[in-house]
Amino acid sequence: MVADKNMKLISFTGSTWVGRKIAVKVAERFGKSLLELGGNNCTIICEDGNLDLAIRGCTFGACGTSGQRCTTLRRLVIHESKYDKMKEMLLKVYKTIVIGD
Fold this sequence. Notes:
By secondary structure, the chain is α/β, with parallel strands linked by helices. Helices cover about 40% and strands about 25% of the residues. It has helices at about 15-30, 50-65, 85-95, and strands spanning about 10-15, 30-35, 40-45, 75-80.
């Protein structure tokens, strides 16, 4: 597909390793590519942050699509005044997540 000159645009979301290979093949035929690679998305929990809202957003952001989107949450930066409570909430919610079917 990436070598096919009939493909006017190749769009790929995934690892930088695969993206690099795709970019080279598409460039060899002077094609166009749109690559979203190696996301490392972060949520920042501020001192005045609403933890109930944050926990819902963070849980969906990290688990809602099983990591299959370029905006999947990977990291949290939490204000020290909110850290212990956020950690407690995360541990509680992650215990409810079913893995698999």
